[in-house]
Amino acid sequence: MYDYHALSQQISGGIGVFNNGFLIFLIIFKSPKKLGTYKYLMIYISVFELIYASLDMLTVPEIFSKDSAFFVMIKSDKTVLPDSLIFSATVMFSSMYGTSIAIFAIHFVYRYVTVTGHSLQSTFVSWKFIIWLFFPFVFGLLWSVVINLTLTANPAGDLLLEQEYLSKTNHSINQVSYIGTYFFPRTVNGTNYFSMRPFIGIGCMLAANFVSIMVILSYGYKCYIHMKTVLPTTSQSSQFKNLQTQLFYALFFQTLIPIILMHTPAFFIFIATFMDRSCELLGQIPSITIVLYPSLDPLPNIFIIRNYRDATICELGAELLANFNHISDYVKSVISLVFRIPGSKIGIEDYKNERNADLSRYNNQSNVASTTFNVDGLTKVWINGVRRKGCQLIGVKQFPAGCGGLAGFNFTDKLLSKKQGLSWTEHNPDGLRYELSDIYQDCLVMWIRPNQKLIDDVLCNSYLDPNGNEIRGYACGKEAG
């Protein structure tokens, strides 16, 4: 039974290493330009969780609880670490448990000062930023000191572990390094007494966690209220508002994961052990849930922050779709088509930077229309066509020979070989020129409204054409032109 549990821990740790490594890649190469210093805070916690996942994978810690005892242990035959490092790894594993919530507290402070423009914002863009990063280390150091002073091994704990747990797994106390609480240890004559030392240790830990959680709740609530009531009325761009909303909700769910998987089970175990009512099942629950934390925690950032989601879906999803052509058109549409949030206005250069992927598999108008027609709030979507050189209207209202209809356009997507079924809006293509310039309508788009399901040539180099119509997204395509 234990071997399966150890294997699951190692697999979960490996997934945690991969997920956090992938998120670090996204943060470095796919972040919005206006993310600012927060990018380094995100990398900071991802590196922390990557280390935590690696430590869990290499040490395979176990948790045992019974009556008033709660122990975290590492067995020498289950870890790749030398014996001289096992106790340090045990302390480090437990200290990182407390450090995690302190890191999230710093994140919520940053979110609040950024959204509100608080004066503390300047401390995140100067050398003082290092001080913010140093706070979690202080928490981790305090946890380590408390553990070494109050929660280390003792004869009563050795006896309980040997009798109630290690004898069942064929291990001796010399093969185990452990820390933990034993509130009511038993004397040699069979009587129990109250031990103050673990009580002080757990009290210090709970107090430290309480401070971190109060910071999270306070700044999280104030940030949420400001975003709902004040931010919509400010002159900030819709792009800024959308980004702040995505970052807040990603952080909210990212914080919720360790609270549910780590801190809540541990809190109930502390209460149960203090009441001398704990059982082995209570110890097994956190031993399962804690290992899930570093593997699940990167996911809110990956799938809530639009830039990271688009990069993941468009780039990885496109590879999957290339190998599985039988996937339904609906799933294909969900994976391949990415749109802006209604209300945001962003130029084609920004789309290039944020998407930068090849459009493929949208071979005819019905394919594109089935995806675009029901997307609320969009105007039109570029479908890869760009007018060929020599096919522009120069001073005359007639295209050169060989430039009529779709023949006048190049398609950068070489897989887009079937173009039959595409229907033009009335009197199009017209190749109109932008007033007082040499910019012509050289890009092919699919209208969503008002000319639904029809194609038209429009301006390439501006997100807003002379009639006020906005190109609101495109199907995982390259920059038009």
TrEMBL record:
UniProt keyword list: Membrane, Transmembrane, Transmembrane helix
Superkingdom: Eukaryota
Gene Ontology annotations for the cellular component aspect, listed alphabetically: plasma membrane
InterPro entries: 7TM_GPCR_serpentine_rcpt_Str (IPR019428)
Signal peptide range: none
Membrane-spanning residues: 6-29, 41-64, 84-109, 129-151, 199-221, 247-275
Pfam families documented for this protein: 7TM_GPCR_Str
A biological process term (GO) from this entry: olfactory behavior
GO molecular function: G protein-coupled olfactory receptor activity
Protein name, per record: Seven TM Receptor
Top-level taxonomy: Eukaryota, Metazoa, Ecdysozoa, Nematoda, Chromadorea
